[in-house]
Design a protein that fits this description.
Blueprint (H helix, E strand, L loop, with lengths): L2 H9 L2 E2 L5 H6 L11 H4 L1 H13 L4 E2 L8 H4 L8 H16 L4 E6 L14 H18 L3 E7 L2 H14 L4 E5 L2 E3 L2 E3 L6 H11 L3 E5 L4 H11 L7 E4 L6 E3 L2 E3 L4 H6 L1 H7 L3 E2 L7 H15 L1
Parallel strand pairs: 1-12, 2-3, 3-4, 4-5, 5-8, 8-9, 9-12
Antiparallel strand pairs: 6-7, 10-11
Helix pairs in contact: 4-6, 6-7, 7-8, 8-9, 9-10, 10-12
Amino acid sequence: MNAIAEKLSEKKILVADGSWGWQLTVHGLPVGQLGETWNLENPAAVQAVAQGYVDAGADIILTNSFQGSTFKLASCGLEDQTEVVNRVAAELSLQAAAGQALVAASIGPTGEFMQPLGLVSEDEMVACFARQVAGFAEAGVDAILIETMTDLGEARAALQAVRDGFDGPAIVSMTFDKGPAGYATMMGVKPEQAAAELQEAGADIVGSNCGAGIVNIIEVIAQLSPATDLPVWAKPNAGMPELIKGETVFRETPEEMASHFEELVDAGASIIGGCCGTSPDHIAALVAERDRLVG
Protein backbone atom coordinates (compact mmCIF):
# COMPACT_ATOMS: atom_id res chain seq x y z
CA MET A 1 0.00 0.00 0.00
CA ASN A 2 1.41 3.41 -0.98
CA ALA A 3 1.67 6.35 1.41
CA ILE A 4 -1.45 8.13 0.15
CA ALA A 5 -3.53 4.95 0.31
CA GLU A 6 -2.34 4.36 3.86
CA LYS A 7 -3.25 7.89 4.91
CA LEU A 8 -6.65 7.62 3.19
CA SER A 9 -7.30 4.37 5.04
CA GLU A 10 -6.48 6.13 8.29
CA LYS A 11 -8.25 9.48 7.79
CA LYS A 12 -10.95 8.62 5.16
CA ILE A 13 -10.73 12.12 3.65
CA LEU A 14 -7.47 13.95 3.00
CA VAL A 15 -6.85 17.67 2.62
CA ALA A 16 -4.31 18.84 0.07
CA ASP A 17 -2.68 22.26 -0.05
CA GLY A 18 -3.73 25.41 -1.88
CA SER A 19 -2.39 27.70 -4.57
CA TRP A 20 1.35 27.93 -5.20
CA GLY A 21 1.67 30.54 -7.94
CA TRP A 22 -0.73 32.85 -6.11
CA GLN A 23 1.14 32.47 -2.82
CA LEU A 24 4.53 33.07 -4.44
CA THR A 25 3.28 36.47 -5.59
CA VAL A 26 2.22 37.17 -2.00
CA HIS A 27 5.83 36.45 -1.02
CA GLY A 28 7.07 38.94 -3.63
CA LEU A 29 7.51 37.04 -6.89
CA PRO A 30 7.50 39.71 -9.64
CA VAL A 31 4.63 39.56 -12.12
CA GLY A 32 5.74 37.70 -15.23
CA GLN A 33 8.66 35.87 -13.63
CA LEU A 34 8.53 32.09 -13.79
CA GLY A 35 7.99 30.93 -10.22
CA GLU A 36 10.27 27.92 -10.63
CA THR A 37 13.28 30.25 -10.95
CA TRP A 38 12.89 30.91 -7.23
CA ASN A 39 13.80 27.31 -6.42
CA LEU A 40 17.36 28.42 -7.17
CA GLU A 41 17.16 32.18 -6.54
CA ASN A 42 14.95 32.43 -3.45
CA PRO A 43 14.50 28.99 -1.90
CA ALA A 44 13.52 30.46 1.49
CA ALA A 45 10.38 32.02 -0.03
CA VAL A 46 9.47 28.76 -1.77
CA GLN A 47 9.90 26.81 1.44
CA ALA A 48 7.80 29.40 3.26
CA VAL A 49 4.86 28.68 0.93
CA ALA A 50 5.18 24.96 1.64
CA GLN A 51 5.51 25.61 5.37
CA GLY A 52 2.35 27.69 5.39
CA TYR A 53 0.35 24.73 4.14
CA VAL A 54 1.99 22.30 6.55
CA ASP A 55 1.15 24.64 9.42
CA ALA A 56 -2.45 24.84 8.13
CA GLY A 57 -2.74 21.07 8.57
CA ALA A 58 -2.61 19.86 4.98
CA ASP A 59 -2.10 16.11 4.60
CA ILE A 60 -0.50 16.55 1.16
CA ILE A 61 1.55 19.47 -0.13
CA LEU A 62 2.79 20.07 -3.65
CA THR A 63 6.06 21.40 -5.05
CA ASN A 64 7.06 24.56 -6.91
CA SER A 65 7.42 22.70 -10.20
CA PHE A 66 4.14 23.23 -12.06
CA GLN A 67 6.02 25.01 -14.87
CA GLY A 68 9.16 22.93 -14.46
CA SER A 69 9.10 21.23 -17.86
CA THR A 70 11.97 21.76 -20.27
CA PHE A 71 9.62 23.63 -22.61
CA LYS A 72 8.66 26.13 -19.90
CA LEU A 73 12.14 26.49 -18.41
CA ALA A 74 13.53 27.33 -21.86
CA SER A 75 11.76 30.70 -21.57
CA CYS A 76 14.24 31.74 -18.88
CA GLY A 77 17.30 29.81 -20.03
CA LEU A 78 17.05 27.02 -17.45
CA GLU A 79 16.22 24.11 -19.74
CA ASP A 80 19.66 22.56 -19.16
CA GLN A 81 18.94 22.54 -15.42
CA THR A 82 15.52 20.87 -15.63
CA GLU A 83 16.41 17.99 -13.32
CA VAL A 84 18.04 20.32 -10.79
CA VAL A 85 15.14 22.81 -10.71
CA ASN A 86 12.66 19.99 -10.10
CA ARG A 87 14.83 18.15 -7.58
CA VAL A 88 15.27 21.34 -5.53
CA ALA A 89 11.52 22.02 -5.72
CA ALA A 90 10.90 18.59 -4.23
CA GLU A 91 13.59 18.96 -1.59
CA LEU A 92 12.18 22.29 -0.39
CA SER A 93 8.71 20.82 0.10
CA LEU A 94 10.09 17.69 1.74
CA GLN A 95 12.04 19.82 4.20
CA ALA A 96 8.91 21.80 5.07
CA ALA A 97 6.78 18.67 5.35
CA ALA A 98 9.26 17.08 7.77
CA GLY A 99 7.14 13.94 8.00
CA GLN A 100 3.98 15.87 8.94
CA ALA A 101 2.61 15.86 5.38
CA LEU A 102 3.11 13.85 2.23
CA VAL A 103 4.69 15.52 -0.80
CA ALA A 104 3.20 15.16 -4.28
CA ALA A 105 5.44 16.70 -6.94
CA SER A 106 3.56 18.88 -9.43
CA ILE A 107 3.73 18.52 -13.23
CA GLY A 108 1.71 21.02 -15.26
CA PRO A 109 1.00 21.30 -18.98
CA THR A 110 3.88 22.30 -21.25
CA GLY A 111 1.90 24.78 -23.31
CA GLU A 112 2.82 22.83 -26.44
CA PHE A 113 0.45 20.87 -28.68
CA MET A 114 1.19 17.27 -29.58
CA GLN A 115 1.01 15.94 -33.11
CA PRO A 116 -1.10 16.09 -35.24
CA LEU A 117 -2.37 19.42 -33.86
CA GLY A 118 1.12 20.59 -32.96
CA LEU A 119 4.78 19.83 -33.56
CA VAL A 120 5.67 17.73 -30.49
CA SER A 121 5.71 13.96 -30.90
CA GLU A 122 4.54 11.62 -28.16
CA ASP A 123 8.11 10.41 -27.59
CA GLU A 124 9.35 13.99 -27.24
CA MET A 125 6.60 14.80 -24.75
CA VAL A 126 7.34 11.71 -22.65
CA ALA A 127 11.06 12.58 -22.67
CA CYS A 128 10.27 16.15 -21.58
CA PHE A 129 8.28 14.97 -18.57
CA ALA A 130 10.84 12.26 -17.78
CA ARG A 131 13.37 14.96 -16.87
CA GLN A 132 11.02 16.36 -14.23
CA VAL A 133 10.29 12.87 -12.93
CA ALA A 134 14.02 12.16 -12.61
CA GLY A 135 14.44 15.16 -10.31
CA PHE A 136 11.45 14.20 -8.19
CA ALA A 137 12.54 10.58 -7.88
CA GLU A 138 16.04 11.60 -6.79
CA ALA A 139 14.58 13.78 -4.02
CA GLY A 140 12.29 10.99 -2.83
CA VAL A 141 8.75 12.43 -3.10
CA ASP A 142 5.73 10.41 -2.00
CA ALA A 143 3.68 10.86 -5.18
CA ILE A 144 3.59 12.76 -8.47
CA LEU A 145 0.64 14.93 -9.49
CA ILE A 146 -0.04 15.63 -13.17
CA GLU A 147 -2.42 18.60 -12.98
CA THR A 148 -4.43 21.22 -14.88
CA MET A 149 -4.37 19.05 -18.01
CA THR A 150 -6.79 19.60 -20.88
CA ASP A 151 -5.39 17.14 -23.45
CA LEU A 152 -5.60 13.43 -22.65
CA GLY A 153 -2.66 12.77 -24.97
CA GLU A 154 -0.39 15.06 -22.97
CA ALA A 155 -1.73 13.68 -19.68
CA ARG A 156 -1.01 10.12 -20.84
CA ALA A 157 2.50 11.14 -21.93
CA ALA A 158 3.19 12.55 -18.47
CA LEU A 159 1.72 9.44 -16.88
CA GLN A 160 3.98 7.26 -19.02
CA ALA A 161 7.01 9.24 -17.85
CA VAL A 162 5.93 8.75 -14.23
CA ARG A 163 5.38 5.04 -14.69
CA ASP A 164 8.80 4.65 -16.37
CA GLY A 165 10.78 6.58 -13.76
CA PHE A 166 8.95 6.51 -10.42
CA ASP A 167 7.66 3.75 -8.14
CA GLY A 168 5.03 5.72 -6.23
CA PRO A 169 1.43 6.74 -6.93
CA ALA A 170 0.49 8.91 -9.90
CA ILE A 171 -2.35 11.43 -9.62
CA VAL A 172 -3.85 12.90 -12.80
CA SER A 173 -6.12 15.96 -12.58
CA MET A 174 -7.85 17.61 -15.53
CA THR A 175 -9.36 21.09 -15.85
CA PHE A 176 -12.95 21.37 -17.10
CA ASP A 177 -14.96 24.40 -18.19
CA LYS A 178 -18.74 24.64 -18.39
CA GLY A 179 -20.15 25.30 -21.84
CA PRO A 180 -23.49 24.89 -23.66
CA ALA A 181 -22.89 21.13 -23.88
CA GLY A 182 -21.86 20.79 -20.24
CA TYR A 183 -18.42 20.28 -18.71
CA ALA A 184 -15.41 19.52 -20.92
CA THR A 185 -11.77 20.48 -21.22
CA MET A 186 -10.75 22.96 -23.90
CA MET A 187 -9.85 19.89 -25.99
CA GLY A 188 -13.37 18.49 -25.65
CA VAL A 189 -12.71 15.82 -23.01
CA LYS A 190 -15.66 15.07 -20.72
CA PRO A 191 -15.15 14.30 -17.00
CA GLU A 192 -16.38 10.70 -17.26
CA GLN A 193 -14.20 10.08 -20.33
CA ALA A 194 -11.13 11.42 -18.53
CA ALA A 195 -11.73 9.26 -15.47
CA ALA A 196 -12.19 6.05 -17.44
CA GLU A 197 -9.28 6.58 -19.82
CA LEU A 198 -6.84 7.72 -17.14
CA GLN A 199 -7.66 4.73 -14.95
CA GLU A 200 -7.10 2.47 -17.95
CA ALA A 201 -3.76 4.23 -18.59
CA GLY A 202 -2.55 3.41 -15.08
CA ALA A 203 -3.36 6.41 -12.87
CA ASP A 204 -3.75 5.70 -9.16
CA ILE A 205 -5.90 8.76 -8.41
CA VAL A 206 -7.92 10.91 -10.84
CA GLY A 207 -9.73 14.19 -10.49
CA SER A 208 -10.11 17.84 -11.38
CA ASN A 209 -8.53 21.14 -10.40
CA CYS A 210 -8.70 24.81 -11.33
CA GLY A 211 -11.17 26.15 -13.86
CA ALA A 212 -13.87 27.18 -11.40
CA GLY A 213 -14.94 27.51 -7.80
CA ILE A 214 -16.06 24.73 -5.49
CA VAL A 215 -19.73 24.76 -6.59
CA ASN A 216 -18.70 23.97 -10.18
CA ILE A 217 -16.13 21.41 -9.08
CA ILE A 218 -18.87 19.59 -7.17
CA GLU A 219 -20.75 19.20 -10.46
CA VAL A 220 -17.60 18.01 -12.26
CA ILE A 221 -16.77 15.43 -9.59
CA ALA A 222 -20.36 14.16 -9.59
CA GLN A 223 -19.89 13.31 -13.27
CA LEU A 224 -16.33 12.04 -12.97
CA SER A 225 -16.49 9.83 -9.89
CA PRO A 226 -19.05 7.23 -11.13
CA ALA A 227 -16.71 6.43 -14.04
CA THR A 228 -13.86 5.22 -11.82
CA ASP A 229 -13.25 3.17 -8.70
CA LEU A 230 -10.05 5.10 -7.91
CA PRO A 231 -9.78 7.78 -5.20
CA VAL A 232 -10.88 11.16 -6.55
CA TRP A 233 -8.87 14.39 -6.25
CA ALA A 234 -10.51 17.85 -6.25
CA LYS A 235 -8.87 21.29 -6.00
CA PRO A 236 -11.23 24.16 -6.85
CA ASN A 237 -10.30 27.81 -7.20
CA ALA A 238 -11.47 30.35 -4.64
CA GLY A 239 -14.29 31.25 -7.00
CA MET A 240 -13.97 32.71 -10.47
CA PRO A 241 -11.27 35.35 -11.02
CA GLU A 242 -12.35 38.96 -11.33
CA LEU A 243 -10.29 41.88 -12.61
CA ILE A 244 -10.58 44.73 -10.10
CA LYS A 245 -8.57 47.91 -10.81
CA GLY A 246 -6.11 45.94 -12.91
CA GLU A 247 -5.65 43.23 -10.28
CA THR A 248 -6.93 39.64 -10.42
CA VAL A 249 -9.09 38.91 -7.37
CA PHE A 250 -10.66 35.68 -6.10
CA ARG A 251 -13.54 36.46 -3.76
CA GLU A 252 -14.44 33.07 -2.24
CA THR A 253 -13.54 33.15 1.43
CA PRO A 254 -12.21 30.21 3.44
CA GLU A 255 -15.58 29.95 5.20
CA GLU A 256 -17.52 29.91 1.92
CA MET A 257 -15.31 27.19 0.47
CA ALA A 258 -15.49 25.08 3.62
CA SER A 259 -19.30 25.37 3.68
CA HIS A 260 -19.42 23.23 0.52
CA PHE A 261 -16.85 20.66 1.68
CA GLU A 262 -19.40 17.99 2.61
CA GLU A 263 -21.17 18.36 -0.75
CA LEU A 264 -17.88 17.75 -2.52
CA VAL A 265 -17.28 14.63 -0.43
CA ASP A 266 -20.81 13.43 -1.22
CA ALA A 267 -20.09 13.97 -4.93
CA GLY A 268 -17.21 11.48 -4.64
CA ALA A 269 -14.06 13.40 -3.74
CA SER A 270 -11.77 11.90 -1.11
CA ILE A 271 -8.79 14.28 -1.45
CA ILE A 272 -9.73 17.96 -1.41
CA GLY A 273 -7.59 21.10 -1.55
CA GLY A 274 -7.53 24.48 -3.24
CA CYS A 275 -6.20 25.94 -6.46
CA CYS A 276 -5.95 29.55 -7.71
CA GLY A 277 -6.70 32.21 -5.13
CA THR A 278 -6.58 29.88 -2.13
CA SER A 279 -4.32 30.37 0.85
CA PRO A 280 -3.30 28.58 4.05
CA ASP A 281 -6.43 30.07 5.62
CA HIS A 282 -8.59 28.24 3.06
CA ILE A 283 -6.77 24.99 3.78
CA ALA A 284 -7.09 25.40 7.54
CA ALA A 285 -10.85 25.86 7.07
CA LEU A 286 -11.04 22.68 4.97
CA VAL A 287 -9.07 20.76 7.58
CA ALA A 288 -11.46 21.91 10.31
CA GLU A 289 -14.44 20.82 8.24
CA ARG A 290 -12.86 17.45 7.47
CA ASP A 291 -12.18 16.89 11.17
CA ARG A 292 -15.79 17.79 11.96
CA LEU A 293 -17.08 15.27 9.41
CA VAL A 294 -14.90 12.29 10.27
CA GLY A 295 -14.63 12.92 13.99
